[in-house]
Amino acid sequence: RRLLASAGLASIAFASAQDYLEAQLPEAPGCLVLDIHLGGMNGFELHQCLKAAGDTTPVVFITAHDDEVTGERARLAGAAGYLRKPLEGSVLLETIRAALEPRASG
Fold it and tell me: To the nearest 5 percent, what fractions of the chain are helix, strand and coil?
């Protein structure tokens, strides 16, 4: 959150996918950064749940457990980004900004 704030990007962190689903957000997020290996519902499951509800928010998946299958799954899910931990701050910011760009112009 501090990195995003330092770049002028507002953010809200949630402890779990369920917490996000139960949140009463005042407006739709511009982008979601989802850890693939969340406790409980994982990042892919949350993304699928949101898509089924018609949510088109761009998603950047992050993981410490990178492999070819996981990367392909993120690509097929239509991810705006797929990053491996540990993350370089500049790469995360660049990926988030790229994910936000189509929403700003559309």
Answer: 45, 10, 45
Burial of 79 per CB tally in 10 Å (0-12, 13-18, 19+) = buried
Measure the CA dihedral 40/44/95/62, to 10°. Answer: 50
Residue 27: per-residue pLDDT: 87
Strand partners, 6: none
Bridge partners, 81 (sequence order): 60
Q: Is 34 exposed, middle or buried (0-12, 13-18, 19+ CB in 10 A)?
A: buried
Q: Which long-range contacts (CB under 8 A, 24 or more apart) does 93-99 make?
A: 93/3, 93/4, 93/7, 93/9, 95/60, 96/4, 96/9, 96/31, 96/33, 96/60, 99/30, 99/31, 99/58, 99/59, 99/60
Q: Find out whether 95 and 81 touch, Cβ atoms under 8 Å.
A: yes
**Per-10-residue mean pLDDT, the chain, length 106:** 94 94 90 92 95 95 94 96 96 96 60
